[in-house]
Amino acid sequence: MKLIRYGADAFERPGLVDAQGRLRDLSGHLADVSPSILDPASLRRLAALPTGELPLIPDGARLGPCVANVGKFICVGLNYLDHAKEAGAAVPTEPILFMKATSSIIGACDDLVIPRGASMVDWEVELGVVIGSRAKNVALDEALNYIAGYCVVNDVSERGWQLQGSGQWVKGKSADTFGPIGPWLVTCDEVADPQRLNLWLRVNGVTRQNSSTAQMIFPVKHLVAYISKFMTLLPGDIIATGTPPGVALGAKPPIYLKPGDVVELGIEGFGEQRQIVTAS
Fold first, then answer.
1. Which residues pair with 121 in a beta bridge?
2. pLDDT band at 18 (very low <50, low <70, confident <90, very high)
3. What is the pLDDT of residues 206-229, one digit of tens each?
4. What is residue 88's predicted lDDT score, i.e. its pLDDT?
5. Hey, which residues does 272 pair with through a beta bridge?
């Protein structure tokens, strides 16, 4: 399934994308696409619904964040070899973890707002992993069983706040609008192999990132098992699994985002995001 949330900000309703690409309403069957419906049994129940009988959603409806009430937004740094090299960083020997504030989360096509005082705002297309079942100290060969599905994430970053002065990664990653997720939550039954997905990003029509999740240093199952050693993963938690090369920081000279820019990004089979950059 491809689950969505549609409607005005803070008033989203649940829906799905049918086999013909049409958006259909699920509010007669559940209150929201929230952590409580991400377990395997609930997803099987939803998958068994007669999709063709669900009401159609009007054209042009806003798509909000594809998951409501995200508890933790966990990110993995430098998880693509060529990205570590372009950032001038050592290649990690184990995953680098940091958190992104959940207040940064927006819909896939909402405006990306440059916060006051920011001058080095960067893009990062990433595969997002949405947890479906409580995971603690899980085994590597069982890790994928704890995932409800996947989505596109733009891990927007303010590099000055992240890296300069008293910079901290969480500080540079957590501004409002810095966490677009969606447009769809694609359930695991539609993803044969999370390490065989093409992902890309364009700025003003120019391709900046174009890679595959096959290039990850630490694959998805490794990340879920590893993170579950240090914290309990709960339904609705999101793991952003790292970005490939091609970020603004790695350009010579860097080419950071400015008001009026248009950022488009996507992952094969997961839909596309489009953000217009504005000033606060």
1. 158
2. very high
3. 999 999 999 999 999 999 999 999
4. 85
5. 266
Cβ neighbours of residue 239 closer than 8 Å, sequence gap 6 or more? 74, 75, 76, 128, 129, 131, 223, 224, 227, 233
Each residue of 184-199: b (16+ CB within 10 Å) or e?
Answer: bbbbbeebeebeebeb
- For the chain, which domains are there? 65-279 (3.90.850.10)
pLDDT tens-digit series, residues 164-180: 988 899 999 999 999 99
And the tokens for 186?
């694609």
Q: How far is CA 120 from CA 126, 166, 190, 247, 257, in A?
A: 19, 15, 37, 11, 7
Instruction: Tell me the whole-structure pTM to 2 decimals.
Output: 0.97
Q: Is the distance from CB of 113 to CB of 179 less than 8 angstroms?
A: no
The partner residues of 177 in beta bridges, in order of sequence, read: none
H helix or E strand, kind and range, residue 162: helix 159-163
